[in-house]
Design a protein that fits this description.
Length: 369
């Protein structure tokens, strides 16, 4: 059932182009507009929303962090993202105009379920983004947008994450479409780009051999740091989470701009630091800033592992290892930038002799609070 792969995780990483395409299937009409009727929250109601609150755990929380950038940019609706386990205990401000989005692969995560119950008690509408048909979270929500990743068996989430991102983009673009924002043209262009993105994910998968070799060469390291900015910041957090859970290594993700506020003191000779570089097109100011961050850490001896768009030459002089990803619109970059980090963590875990599909101390769905 592993389809010729040694681990479910490898199989699920390889299935990502299909998972992404399947999650888009039937949701973009012939005119390039989104049809999300299945969501069952009417356009009039969506126009009334004055706040979006996303609750999730672990990898799904990272998808939520990325969704915030997309939702606020395309809809101008304020969006908060909160760890489901923290949410209800701080007495959050919610009412009938808040849309709460609960993201969960399994649909059975107790922390997320308790958060959505709390939101519904406050009169908010809850939209679930879920990969498991008929599971508890969608059953208890007002509406559901299913991800079509297929069953995810490995404890470490991979294809579910990419499809959660796709679902989040769809919701953000749909809200923008329904409410009509000044980004109308950009929204249409991004919908077009989304419909090609699975091919880009495929292209990334075809170039992963050097990433595997790099991972094997780092098997005896104690720490790996991950840096990113903008949507690359949650990608850095996700890269670090994968490494902790699979390789049992100390790994941390930081917003690159925070380096100078403390973490730069951690940099020492030969410390591997993975940097997710935003596109030099689009928000290019971010790109320039991260290039100087790379210079700073390299000057202090870090071994820089740079994930950058094809054609981005500015990073070349400062990259000890360069991992290329295809050019995408800024907000969609996590769909391609996360893949090398999954492969990296999986290979490091294998090199360290760890059980890839079933890491120690973890369960696939966490049904206790
Ligand atoms: O089933 P869920 O999406 O609600 O699970 C949430 C987290 O437990 C899950 O993403 C966890 O962090 C993964 N093992 C990470 O790879």
């Amino acid at each position: 059932e592993k389809g010729g792969y040694d681990y479910f995780m490898l199989k699920e990483i390889a299935e990502q182009p299909k998972a992404v395409a399947d999650t888009l299937l039937g949701r973009i009409d012939a005119n390039g507009s989104l049809t999300l009727d299945e969501v069952r929250i009417g356009a009039a109601e969506l126009r009334e929303i004055d706040k979006v609150v996303i609750v999730a755990c672990g990898t799904a929380f990272h998808a939520g962090l990325i969704a915030k950038y997309a939702i606020e940019h395309w809809t101008r609706i304020p969006c908060e993202v909160e760890l489901a386990s923290e949410f209800r205990y701080r007495d959050p401000i919610l009412d009938s105009r808040s849309l709460v989005i609960a993201i969960s692969q399994s649909g059975e995560t107790m922390d997320t379920l308790m958060a959505l119950r709390h939101a519904r008690e406050q009169g908010s509408k809850v939209l679930a983004i879920c990969n498991t048909n008929g599971s508890t979270i969608p059953r208890e929500s007002d509406a559901v947008l299913y991800t079509h990743a297929g069953p995810e068996v490995a404890v470490a989430s991979t294809k579910a994450f990419l499809t959660q991102l796709v679902a989040c983009y769809l919701v953000a673009l749909y809200l923008g479409q329904v409410r009509g924002t000044k980004w109308g043209d950009e929204i249409s262009a991004v919908i077009r780009d989304l419909s090609h993105i699975s091919g880009e994910v495929e292209r990334v998968l075809e170039t992963m051999e050097p990433v595997r070799a790099l991972a094997r060469s780092l098997a005896d390291k104690k720490t790996v740091l991950f840096l990113g900015r903008h949507v690359g910041y949650p990608v850095a957090l996700e890269g670090a989470l994968k490494l902790k859970e699979l390789a049992y290594m100390h790994a941390e993700g930081f917003a690159a701009g925070e380096l100078k506020h403390g973490p730069i003191a951690l940099i020492e000779e030969d410390l591997p630091v993975v940097v997710v570089v935003p596109s030099p097109r689009g928000r290019s100011v971010l790109h320039d800033k991260i290039v100087s961050n790379i210079q700073e850490i390299r000057a202090r001896g870090a071994r820089t592992i740079v994930i950058a768009e094809e054609g981005d030459e500015a990073v070349v002089p400062y990259a000890d290892h360069l991992i290329r990803i295809p050019a995408t619109p800024t907000l969609l970059q996590p769909l391609v930038a996360t893949v090398p980090l999954q492969v990296f963590a999986c290979e490091l875990a294998t090199a360290r002799g760890n059980e890839v599909d079933q890491p120690r101390n973890l369960a696939k769905s966490v049904t206790v609070e």
